[in-house]
Write a structure and sequence with these properties.
Two copies of one chain form a homodimer. In chain A, about 30% of the residues lie in helices and about 25% in strands. Chain A is built from nine helices and eleven strands. The longest helix of chain A has 17 residues. At the A-B interface, β1, β2, β3, α2 and β4 of A face β1, β2, β3, α2 and β4 of B.
């Protein structure tokens, strides 16, 4: 940061000569509930989902600018928690909040823009996957959806048995360093899993003009995820395939590259279109277009 | 733009090796009213106020990323008008909308982040004004406040006599090129007038640790501004000194530099603190802390 908060605008170093930029809005009642998440959690999550988008290009996040709309009656402590959460999530990647705007409104809305530096790398787009590539994932799948399902279910005694899943919902832990790592490993395409593995790989497959076959069967789901699914009568495969907001990074990589030990092999790229999956439990092959729980997007196409 | 909408993030050229970034939120009912402004107007204004912040650093705006929260029932035409307005205001400076996020919410909120390139210039901060500098302004003062006052007054026949003032409110016309021009002319400090001339110069004076004496008396207010003020029984000096959202650029420049013909000389910098002004009509000297009409900020300090 060359000039931080307090002027008309911030000034950041962009040593690469290019800058990566992405933005997301979080709206109270749509993307978070004040009774389920502290201001700190909202701050960490708002930062995390934008920083993960930067990482998914193969870049290192450098800075956030943040717009906050909230009622004038909002407790100062809540706003301070939010800024603490933003700051702490930035610190995970060595970034910082360099500017912002706070205005009053009836509902809380957090608008985060993240910037990043490619450090000389070619950006990894969604459109570069080629038949023969293999599909690797780094990071968690399904934990956030499980945490949200527990909170929606509303049984506090039950929820209390799954603190890791509640944390996964409130405060995702994207594998930021995997973004530059996968880029350096030769990733041909990459995306962060914000809307669910099948849906986001569907975006990647469509952009690349390829078909992707998914197979999670060789990777056991974490025991608490399996148990929570059983308790709620939900297929654990649904959370892993369709649950969003864990912000795992998934990339297609040429078959000659073996990332075993650093990433999980979950699929293959072939000629064709769409995403095929078989959770081994109850889904037929095919593309399902569900939105991830908690996300509520509309009209993406206006800006994309 | 190297990579535009449609991926996890956009990638922009930053040839200078630094990037300027600023963000603002506009909230329905606080910063605009849907019955007073079209989607197109909201888009142009949302872009303009952020692009002006970039210019006020001495930089050239390059790109916007935009977050839009709006009811699912919002007419598609309104959203398209908004994006048209954003695009057209960007085109004024050769910038473009490179990415965004659209989500549903009860009220319309537009979150704009603008990025810019310094083209090798030193950024012009608020803190560099020195005693002996002179204060120059480029751009309109008071027109937006007058337009808002006419709309609030609610007399349509009266308003119809002042189309330029209504336009000034709905769609400000910041003098973007004056930002780099004033920087190249040796500006020691600069700010864009978003909250009102006295208030924004107060920020500049405080950041620089100087006193500023303002004198608008040698510059006649535009005739329609004078007439509208008389019609509404308002002191025209109030609009020029305290009216925000015209996004004029005001800079302090060493006394040896004469900008006559390119800018208006409106004051001097001296040792001391604060802003002194005399509209020649009814104000005593002193700093007044009114917010500009239409703006509704709180808690700036959390991010500044």
């Amino acid at each position: 940061m060359l000039i931080g908060p307090g002027d008309d605008a911030a000034v950041l170093a962009a040593p690469d000569g290019r800058v990566v930029a992405t933005t997301d809005l979080l709206v109270e009642g749509r993307h978070f509930r004040l009774e389920w998440m502290s201001g700190y959690d909202v701050g960490r999550r708002a930062a995390a989902q934008n920083l993960a988008d930067v990482a998914a290009m193969g870049a290192v996040p450098t800075a956030l600018v943040v717009g906050l709309a909230c009622p004038a009656s909002s407790p100062v402590a809540w706003v301070e928690e939010l800024t603490d959460g933003l700051r702490d999530e930035c610190a995970v990647v060595g970034a910082s909040v360099v500017g912002g705007d706070v205005v009053s409104a009836d509902a809380v809305t957090v608008a985060v823009t993240a910037l990043g530096d490619l450090q000389g790398r070619a950006p990894v787009r969604r459109s570069g996957a080629r038949p023969g590539d293999r599909v690797w994932v780094v990071g968690a799948l399904g934990g956030s959806a499980a945490g949200l399902a527990l909170l929606r279910h509303g049984d506090r005694q039950l929820s209390a048995r799954y603190p890791r899943l509640l944390d996964a919902y409130r405060c995702p832990v994207p594998p930021y360093v995997a973004g530059p790592f996968l880029a350096d490993a030769g990733a041909t395409a990459m995306i962060d899993v914000s809307d669910g593995l099948v849906q986001d790989l569907g975006h990647l497959a469509a952009a690349s003009g390829v078909a992707i076959s998914l197979d999670l069967s060789q990777w056991a789901a974490p025991p608490d995820l399996v148990e929570a699914a059983a308790d709620l009568g939900i297929d654990v495969g649904e959370w892993r395939l369709f649950g969003g907001e864990d912000h795992a990074l998934v990339a297609t990589v040429p078959a000659a590259v073996d990332l075993s030990g650093d990433a999980l092999l979950i699929g293959e790229v072939a000629a064709g279109l769409g995403v095929r999956y078989d959770s081994g439990v109850r889904y037929d092959s095919g593309v399902r277009n569900d939105s991830a729980p908690g996300r509520d997007h509309l009209g993406f196409d206006h800006f994309r």
